[in-house]
């Protein structure tokens, strides 16, 4: 009986040991998203923030001081260039014009008087010259007559200069009177009216009360004005494409084009930055001047390059060995197992990164989930995640 039991045990051992070895030697396969190295266009971008402004916006201020007599437009009105927007009380300026007109008439009378005096002195000089020739008077009398003639000529010239001065002052007075009517310098829309009837308009640019009358803007000229950090500005140039995300409509980006890059920096609490102006492809409903926005400026067109999704590329935790570059690596899939491969990367956008060295087109790598990538080891068996589309590359940044 014991011999039979021992025989059965030995037979069972011969069967169980190979099965156990086989079972112990095959670890379960991990599941991961698998992608291939494919050619795709990389569109690296620079991020910046700013706000919307009108390219054509004019803040009107008065050029003369006066009490507002009429305001002829209200906020939201459509305005044509040259249209009268408001009038100041013209009484004092009309009185000034009348005074300068009187001064001009007085100067004209002075010219007439000086002309008559000149003619009279000319006759006296001629008469004295004949008397000297006939020896009825001595030469000193003739010299005195010539002297008076010269003075008469100078008086006439001075009177004419006084007339020119009077006409200039009259012109200035009329110009000040004309400026009591404030006219629109551009066509557009009144987006703000800051002054009311009875208030005093002040000729000043210091922002004191009364210095700002109203603001006119061309509503079709909305543009984005953003600040780009000095470390990125060298990669920004006129003509580059961009996407503009209004803060109020973050899910509705607007296409744009870099129109200009400032040559001088602005210094703020966060360092130096440069102003970049972008022309929008179209006006967006609900977007107004002064609203904040975020902008992605595409800094390269590049053409197609070998790429992988950004999440597939890992960064080595340990410092590189002597002679090696700081490491980026991937888990390449070879024969159903993963192999850790060091790669050299290039340009990147918000979805993909260029692979310069370490992989070839068509090579398969594990791309996620990120937790699985952190748990993988060289030689681990792997298979495609059932719920993930296998062998694909994440789409690049929208054009």
Explain what you see.
There is one protein chain. The protein is of the alpha+beta class and 399 residues long. It has 4 helices and 24 strands. The protein has a 6-stranded antiparallel beta sheet with strand order 2-18-22-21-20-19, with no helix packed on it. The chain has a 6-stranded antiparallel β-barrel with strand order 3-12-16-14-13-17. The protein has a 4-stranded antiparallel beta sheet with strand order 4-11-9-6, with no helix packed on it. A hairpin with a 3-residue loop joins strand 21 and strand 22. The longest helix has 43 residues. The chain is elongated and about 145 Å long. The protein starts with a helix and ends in a 15-residue tail after the last strand.
Secondary structure: elements and pairs:
Blueprint: H1 2-25, E1 30-36, E2 38-41, E3 45-54, E4 57-60, E5 66-71, E6 78-79, E7 84-88, H2 91-133, H3 139-178, E8 181-183, E9 188-193, E10 200-201, E11 214-217, E12 222-229, E13 241-246, E14 254-261, E15 266-268, E16 271-280, E17 292-298, E18 304-309, E19 314-315, E20 328-334, E21 337-348, E22 352-357, E23 364-368, H4 370-375, E24 382-384
Parallel strand pairs: 1-24
Antiparallel strand pairs: 1-23, 2-18, 3-12, 3-17, 4-11, 5-7, 5-10, 6-9, 7-8, 9-11, 12-16, 13-14, 13-17, 14-16, 15-16, 18-22, 19-20, 20-21, 21-22
Helix pairs in contact: 2-3
